[in-house]
Fold each of these.
Amino acid sequence: MPKDYSPLLDLLIASRPGREHQRDRFNAALLALDIHSVFDIIRFSRNDFIDRLAKHCDEDGGQAYDNAVGYASKIELLARTPSLRDPDMLRNKRGSTSDPHAPPTYATLFPENEDSFCSASSLAAVDSPAAYLRALYMFALQVEQTGKGTQEKITLDQRRPALKYLMIDDENTHRELPMLTLVNETLREHLKKYLNDNSDLYGNRTVEQVLTELRFPFELPFDLAHQQCVLSLSGQKPQLGALNYLISLKLPYTQQPENKYGVVYQEAYEAQRLLTLLSPAQQNLLTEDIYGQNPSLDAQPASFFKKHYGNAQPITDQQHFMQNTGLNTDQLLELLALGRHRPQRSAHVLPAPAQITSDQNIGARYINGPLVGGKKRLGLSTFTAEKMHLEQTTNQRYDRLQRMIRLQRWLDIPFFELDEFVHSAQRCEGTPSDSLIINDNTLRALGVFRYLSRRFAINLKTFSAWLYQLSVHGTGKQAALFDQVFNPPNWLHSPLTLDNQPLDLTTTDATLFRICASLGLEDTPVSMGLLKTRTQDYLSQPARNISTLSSFYRQATLPGLFALSINECDQLVHMLGGADYRRQLVIPALRTSGSNSPPDFLDVLMQLDWAVTWLKESKTSTSQLRRQLLLDTAPPPHQYRRDLLKSTLYCKARKSTFFRRPCSMNWTFLRPKQAPNTLNSLGTCCWEKHC
C-alpha cells in the first residue's frame, strides 16, 4: 500500500471471513480512482462515487460513501474541538467554583469552548465568502455539463480563464479591488491571446503599444503611460507643460521680445503642446498629412477607411456612420451644422460679398473646406423612406470628419465652437483660406487655452475672439458673441450695426461711446483713450467692422483676465517686450508653425501669466516695479500730495516770528513740477535746503 494510504479506508466495507479478496479489489478500486483518504471520497457526490466505484468492483458504494462521510465528520469534530481529545475534559461538570445561584440552563450545564468555533468571515467557515465562491464555481462547472442547445457554449473558462488559477487565501478574500481593475485584467487576458494568435501582424508588441497605434474604435488611440501622468498631476498640482514653465531657468525679464521662457530640454512651443493634455499619438493623428506633398490630391491609402472607420469602403449610410463613429442623430446634425444647429448671422451685421460666400459653410468650415469651383457642403439626403445617406462626401472630407469627431470627444466642447476655434487659429497664423491642416500652431493655441481655462475659467468662444475675431453667428437660441457684448437684450438704445464705414478715433463719434459703454470702459486717457491710441498706432484703417471691434474687445478684456487695469496691462506688456508685444494685443499673429521665434500672441499670454503671478507673490504692483526700474520718474500720488502738504505748511509758518530769526541756513524756493494725473490743490511751491 502507498505510504499516504489511510487505514480508515479498510473500515468502509464490512469484513467477512473468507472473502478477503473482495477487500483487496475494493482497495485496488480506490487506488485506481486516486483516493487515499475519506476526504477524497466526500469530494465526490454520492451518486458520482457509486457510479465510479461500480466500474472497478461490485462492493456497496453507497454504504462505503456513508461510512466515509461519518468518519470525515468525526475527524473534523475532533480537529475543531480540542477538549474532546483531552480525557480529563470528556465530561463537562459543574465545579465547586461555579455560581451556586446560576439557573440550570443549557449554557451553564453544557458550556461551549469559543475557541473551537470561527467567525463567518474566516476561511475555515463553511459559510465564508471563500466557501461560497468555491461552491459557486463548482456549481457553474456542473451547469456547463448540463443543457442542450444549438449554439456552442461560452464556458466560464472562456470568460474568466484566470479564475481557476486564483489562490483562495486571506489576502484575496479580504482585499477589495476596483471594478475597473478586474475589467482591465479580464480584457488584458483576451487581448494577449489575440496578439499571440496574430503575432505576424503585431510582432512582440505589448498591449499598451498596440492600443497607442490603433485608431478604431473612436475611443482609440489610448496611451496608458500618458494617461497615468495626466491623472497623477491632476487637482492642484502643476500639469504637463506647466512643469516646463515652472522649472525654466530663463525668465522673460530682459525687456526684449524673445521666447526663452519655458525652454528646458526642448523649445517653448513643445511645452505649449503638452498643455493640451493630448498624448503624442492623439497629436499625431490630428496633425499628420496623409496626402503627402500634394494636399489637393483626392486620394487615400487603401487602408485608411479600415484603419479609421473599421470599414473597408467609405460609409455613406447614416445609421452605419453613426454606429461606427459613436454619434447620435443630434450630434451628427451638429457636426454637419444642419437643422437647428445651422448658425445664423447677426441681424446687426451688414456682410460684405466675401462674407456672404464664406457663410455658406459656417459652423462646418473645417470639415467642408472652401466651397469653390461648384463644390457643395456636406449634407444628408433621403435614400429611401427609412434611410438617409451622406452626400457630397470626398476622401479628404472623411479624413477631416474623423479628426473633428475625435477632437470633440477628447475635449467635450460643442462642434460649432471647435470649428470656430480651428478657423480662428488658422486665420491668426495667416494661412491661406484653402489650407485646412491642423498644425503645430493649432495645438499650441489649444494648449494655451486649456491652461488659461483651468486657471481663469475662460471659454473657447472668448479665446477664439482673442485669436482672430468676435463671432457674428449664433446657434439655436444663443445669440452671437458680437451681440452678447455690444447689443445685449436689455440695452435701451439703438443697436450697434456694423456697416463697414470708416471710424475716426480722434472725434467724439457715438460709436466710440457705445464701445466704451459695452466694454465697461471709462472715457479717460488711461482707459478708452489708451485703447484708441494703441489702435491708431497699429491698425491701419479703423472702421465699423468686426476687425476693429474685435481689437477693442481684445484690448479691453485681456487685462481683466489677469486682474489688471488697461493701463497696467499696457505698461507690463511694454516691459516684457516693448512695442512688438503691444502690437500683439491689437493685431495678434502666430509665427510659422514648427519654429520657436519670434514670440507671438500665445507667448505673450504665457509671459503675462508669469509676470502677474510673480507680482502677486512678491506683493508688489506694476507701478511700483516701474519706479524700481527707473521707468517711471513721477512720484506716486500719495507721496506727491504729502510733499505738497509739507511745502504749504512751511510757507505759512515762514511768516511767523520764529522763522524771522537769523539763521545760518540758506533756503531756495523753487516752483514744483506738476505730477501727471494729480491735482495741485495743497500749494504751489516746494523747497530745496542747502546747508
Amino acid sequence: MQGLTLRDGPAMVGGYRYEVSIVTALESIEGALEARGYRVTAARRAVLRAILSKPEHFTAEEVMRQTSAGRATVFRTVRLLRELGILCRVMLEDGRPQYRLLGPRQHHHHVVCVECGRVQDLEECAVGGLVRELASATGYEIQGHWLEFYGRCLSCRQPSHSGGE
C-alpha cells in the first residue's frame, strides 16, 4: 500500500521537517486511515499524537508510557501504521524493534550501534540492481526489502567512552 507523504517544511515530526503542524499531520494520518476503512477511536488518536511527538526513533513501550491507551491498542496501531507505510521498523541487534514516522523519502536503510543503540538512517539504497537480478533469477516480483547494518558508532569507539577499548 502507498505510504503517506507529508510536505517538507519547518516543523519537526518523526525526525523530518514538515510544513504542517502536528495537528495537520494527525489529520492527514487520520484521513489516510479513514479512507482505507479504519476507525479512528480516541485511543488510536492518543497513540497517533504520542507517535507524532517523537522526534526520532521510538519503541512501542515509550508510546505506551506516554498515553493511556492499552498495550494491545498501541501494538495494533503501530502494526497498522507499518502496514500502511506510515511507520518504518528498525530491529536493534538484540531483536528489540524501534519505529520512526516515514517522511518524504520513504525507502531507506539503517546503521545501528550495537553498544549505545543509536540508529542512523542511510540516504542511499545501493541494492536496486541486486533486487532486479534477484527478481530475474528467481521469477519473484520483489515487493520490498529491509536492510540494516550493525556496528559501533564513532562515539562508542572513542577511548574516553566508558565502553571503549
Amino acid sequence: MGDAHMAEFGAAAPYLRKSDKERLEAQTRTLDLRSDCFVSDEKEEFVKGKIVSRDGGRVTVETENGKTVTVKESDVHQQNPPKFDKIEDMAMLTFLHEPAVLYNLKERYAAWMIYTYSGLFCVTVNPYKWLPVYNAEVVAAYRGKKRSEAPPHIFSISDNAYQNMLTTSTFLGLTPEHSGSPSPLCASRSQSIWVEPHS
C-alpha cells in the first residue's frame, strides 16, 4: 500500500506507515552484514556500531556515539538491512533479537508510529499526546480490510475480530494492555470501529 492508497487514511497516514520516498531511501542505503552490529550500552541499552577487528572470540566495535568497545563476539547482534527500518511487523525481521526489536520500536515511536505488529500481537507505545489516528476517517479506512491490507492499528485488530464474529459465530477476545494509560481507553477506541455505521 503506497502513498496513493494511504490517502484514504487522511491526516493519519504519516502516523501509520512510511512514505514511498522513505521506503525507497531505505532500500538504497548500504549495510555490511559482517561488520554492522548492535552492542550493549550503559546509557541506551543497545547502540549501533561497526566491528573494526576480531581477535580470539572478542571483537572491537566503534559505536555510533564515538566509543570504542571490546566485547565477546557472542554479545554482538547483527543489524537488519535498512529496508527493515520501521517495519510494521517485527516477525518479518531477518535478525529477530532484543536490540532489533527495541531499535524498530524506537524508530517507529520517533516518527509517532505508535502501533507495530509482532507476529499475532499489536504492540502499542503510548505517545503521551493526542495523535490524529482515531477519527471517523481512520475507522472507515480500516473497516473490512484484512490485517495484511492496512498498517498496524487497534482498529484493524478490532475490525478483524468483529468480522470473524459475524462470519464464524466465534468470539475472539480483545485484551487491551496499554502501558501507561487506562485499559478502558484502549477498549473504547477498539470498540469505536463497531459503533460507527457500517456501509
Amino acid sequence: MWVGSSISLLLGALFGVLLGVRSFIADWGGGGVTLSG
C-alpha cells in the first residue's frame, strides 16, 4: 500500500533531519543550545 511507503519515507526524512540538527547542535558545542519546533 502507498500509505506504508509514504510513512517510511516520512520517517526517513524526519530521521535525517534529526541527525542534521544533532550534528548542527554539536558544532555549536551543545551547551545550552535547544531547538524547539
